[in-house]
Design brief:
This protein is an alpha+beta fold. It is built from eight helices and seven strands. It has a seven-stranded mixed beta sheet with strand order 2-1-7-6-5-4-3.
Length: 183
Amino acid sequence: MHTSFKRFAAFCFVLFAAMVGVAAAADNPMVGGAAMYANKTIVENAVNSKDHTTLVAAVKAAGLVDTLNGKGPFTVFAPTNEAFNRLPAGTVDTLVKPENKATLTKILTYHVVPGTHTSKELMAQAMKGPIMLKTVQGEALTIKAHDGKLWVIDAKGGTTGISIADVMQSNGVIHVVDKVLMP
């Protein structure tokens, strides 16, 4: 009986853990075909998105994994693989070389804003007029509302819409964008 009880207890624990995992992902949108869990960090979730393999490789090359696994909170405007593919040919290959780590870090940290900024909060502010968010890199991103959608404008005037908003993480929030933002 004692062994049966242990097996039952183990089964209940596994079932409970699975239910907690499902609940943690229930409110989050799928990204890149993968469930995103609110109880995991930005990096722990991003590595599962097939749409963000280039971003993950760039974060690793820049040495930012520990930072984005840190306490935060952070708001990350996460460019898709398609966004990186829109850059001139050879750009990504050049940026991930060790000698270009400083430039890569500057570009990646330009996609990160301290704090958790949800789309609801951003929309409420942007409806009153453009807002500026200071990035970890030091320069600002401009957020505007247009036709019920949030738009992000970089320092060079490049514009991209948020395609997937409010992917909650244990250390912040991700908003998926379809363009690489440039400081």
